[in-house]
Design goal:
This protein has six helices and five strands, in the order H-E-H-E-H-H-E-H-E-H-E. It has about 140 residues and is an alpha/beta fold. It has one domain (about 30-140): DsrEFH-like (Hypothetical Protein Ychn, Chain: A, 3-Layer(aba) Sandwich), CATH 3.40.1260.10. Helix 2 runs parallel beside helix 4 (about 85-95). The longest helix is centred in the first third of the chain and has 24 residues, at about 1-25.
């Protein structure tokens, strides 16, 4: 009889204890946050179109949409004639454009020439992983 009672208590502890742990790990909101890591400036057009579509699809659940630009073509953010248009469209869509500081340094790009509307992070790849730890959905192009 003691074994039966002990097994029953143990069973309830496991069942309800794990339910409590799962409830604690569940997201508090249904907000959808996104991050895209890209190496090519022309990819900003389809990325921004995607953000616009997700904003409509997600409605109130649309959270943050960040685009991190890294790699050897990072200098194009200071020279591409369409960069101003990309920035305007991104802002209108609620997209934050971010430059990888490591790439800027490696390819000797003057940070003073980076558009003021863009945030610079120390390491774009690390920043991407940190955002993923906070639940961001991520893709690299």
């Amino acid at each position: 009889m003691k074994t039966y009672v002990l097994n029953t208590v143990l069973l309830f502890t496991v069942l309800f204890g794990s339910a409590t742990v799962n409830a604690q790990n569940a997201p508090l909101t249904n907000t959808h946050n996104y991050v895209v890591l890209t190496k090519k400036i022309p990819q900003l057009t389809p990325i921004i179109l995607t953000a616009e579509a997700l904003k409509v699809e997600d409605g109130r659940d649309f959270g943050s949409f960040k685009v991190i630009i890294c790699g050897k073509d990072i200098g194009e953010i200071t020279t591409n004639k369409d960069m101003g248009d990309y920035i305007k469209r991104a802002e209108a869509a609620g997209v934050e454009l971010i430059a990888c500081g490591f790439s800027l340094q490696k390819f000797k790009i003057d940070t003073a020439k980076v558009p003021k509307a863009m945030k610079i992070v120390e390491n774009g790849i690390l920043y991407n992983f940190q955002l993923q730890k906070h639940g961001y959905k991520s893709i690299s192009l």
